[in-house]
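Data deposition worksheet. Section B asks for the primary sequence of the deposited chain exactly as it was used as input, without tags or linkers unless they were present during the calculation. Section C holds the resulting structure in token form. Section D is free text for depositor observations; keep each observation to a single sentence. Incomplete worksheets are returned to the depositor.
Section A, Depositor: J.P.
Section B:
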Amino acid sequence: MKKLKDLKAELRANPAVRQAYDVQAPEFELTRELWAAMREVSALVDKDPSPHKPEGERLNALSALIEDYERKHHPIDMQDPVEANKFHMDQGNDTLAPQI
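Section C:
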């Protein structure tokens, strides 16, 4: 079985693949940074730091950055409650969907 770095080198030797990779490289780096920030947030949440201490301020800042990124890149449209109930009932449920 090939190692990931060997496979990556083999693929990047192809000019067309290399060009496609280079176009996506900034997004790949951003994704790595996002996952690193989420791991750090998880570790900080486990510590439950005071919001007025450096760890608490770091947690708040990272959380705000992650939330902003997700809002811009993965928006969630709010569903119309009437349409949600129609869909729920069309799926074979006789009762109205819970209203949250």
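Section D:
The chain has one domain: 4-75.
Helices lie at 4-12, 15-47, 54-73, 81-90.
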